[in-house]
Amino acid sequence: MNPSPCAADKLWPRALVIFFACFISAIIAFSTWALRQRVDLVRPDYYEAEIQHQQHLDRASRALASGQPDVLLNAVLHRVEITLPAHPSQLPATQGQAHFYRPDDSRLDRRMALPLQSEGTIAYPAHDLKPGLWKVHLE
To answer: Is 48 within the bounds of a domain?
Structure first.
């Protein structure tokens, strides 16, 4: 005599088919969702940004070769004095830019022209610079 199949023996093949159907449907749904996501790994102007970055590295290496500039706050005369290490005739450019950067408030940031006088010292008035931490970036 053959034993009669119980209800559990008929249920597991259906459960296995339902499980795999749900699993495959979930994989297809996730793949569709992932393919529709926008992923920008690089900037649209990647090559232009690379050239600008290389120019920045070249400027930085030239600056390190000529030495560090001195930035001094003259509280008596209320001005910021920047002394460049190289004589202006040795510098490749006769004009640049000084960026006074305020880390805690970007509205106070200032960009000023960096003209070179004969002795390589530039003085900026400090009347409009609020007290606090300032960083100076020279270009």
So the answer is: no
What is the model's pTM? 0.50
Does the pLDDT value for residue 43 go beyond 60? yes
Cα–Cα nearest to 71, from 109, 127, 126, 8: 126
Question: What does the angle CA 41 – CA 46 – CA 50 come to, to the nearest 5 degrees?
Answer: 120
Number of domains in the chain: 2
Is pLDDT of 1 > 90?
no
52-79 burial, b if ≥16 CB within 10 A, otherwise e? eeeeeeeeeeebeeeeebebeeeeeeeb
Are residues 30 and 76 part of one domain? Answer: no
Q: Do 80 and 18 have their domain in common?
A: no
Left, alpha or beta for 80 (phi > 0: left; psi -120 to 50: alpha)?
beta
In the numeric block, which tokens belong to residue 52?
């600008």
